[in-house]
Design goal:
It is built from 3 helices and 15 strands. By secondary structure, the chain is an alpha+beta fold. Strands 9-14-15-12-13 form a 5-stranded mixed beta sheet. Strands 1, 4, 7 and 8 form a 4-stranded mixed beta sheet that branches. The chain is rod-shaped and about 110 Å long.
Length: 260
């Protein structure tokens, strides 16, 4: 006749085993080390290695060095770990390691395989304004005028010097017997101003209105891309060509009897 163990002895044995396992988890310091290589067996530098303790659910991570090596220290790991290795352009790799006996150093060498990882689609959206007007630019003070705006203003849009007088801080100079009408910026002489057409110096101030896309009047600029003026700048940009012939007719009349 066999003697059955008493329930008290079974409960005592289970409690001793649990306390021994808890003491082993809480007092053992383990080191996880290894090398990560690619499909060509060359070391991968910068691979992310993440270790998860199965017993404590604590996660620690490390990054491989130039030789592909990594080291993760677990003060109270428990002996069983799940490793996940990630690297850009490679498929993620998962490895499980466990302590055997009294060893405190676990080695996990991983070889990753190449994988084409699909990227999420990037959608770029923009909204175009009703009028195509270029900005004045960084470090500059002035304003930009489109061809539609110039066509509705009661000024001679063919004369860029007259257009310049629409900007704040610009003083229009009337024509004299020896000089033509001009403008002054910040009290400087008209010779300190500059007129450009598509970035080139323009000697004459008259440009066909149909050829102009936008006109910028710059009264103060610190941009290194602009130069050769210390007063104001009137920069005009022409429209792009088309295969369809088109044009318009503009007539300007200024009655001297109505001027004052």
């Amino acid at each position: 006749m066999r003697a059955r163990p008493s329930p008290l002895l079974l409960a005592l044995a289970l409690s001793l085993a649990a306390s021994r396992a808890a003491a082993q988890v809480g007092t053992t310091t383990e080191i996880i080390t290894g090398t990560v290589v690619g499909p060509d067996s060359q070391p991968l530098a910068g691979a992310l290695v993440q270790a998860l303790s199965v017993e404590t659910q604590i996660t620690r991570h490390a990054t491989t060095d130039a030789r592909g090596r990594f080291t993760i220290v677990f003060p109270d790991g428990g002996g069983q770990y799940d490793l996940t290795i990630r690297f850009i352009g490679m498929a993620p790799a998962t490895v499980s390691v466990a302590r055997e006996g009294d060893e405190d150093r676990l080695v996990a060498n991983v070889q990753m395989g190449a994988s084409a990882v699909p990227l999420e689609a990037v959608t770029v959206s923009a909204r175009r304004g009703s009028r195509l007007v270029e900005r004045v630019g960084p470090g500059a003070v002035g304003r930009s005028l489109s061809a539609d705006q110039l066509s509705r203003l009661p000024v001679d849009a063919l004369d860029l010097k007259t257009v310049a007088a629409l900007a704040p801080g610009v003083l229009a100079l009337a024509a004299t017997d020896s000089t033509e009408a001009d403008f002054s910026v910040a009290g400087q002489r008209p010779t300190a101003n500059a007129l450009t057409l598509d970035g080139l110096s323009l000697g004459s101030g008259s440009v066909p209105q149909d050829a102009i896309r936008s006109t910028r009047v710059v009264t103060s600029s610190y941009d290194a891309a602009r130069g050769q003026f210390s007063g104001g700048l009137v920069a005009s940009t022409t429209r792009s060509g088309k295969n369809i012939p088109q044009g318009s007719f503009t007539y300007t009349l200024r009655d001297r009897s109505l001027a004052w």
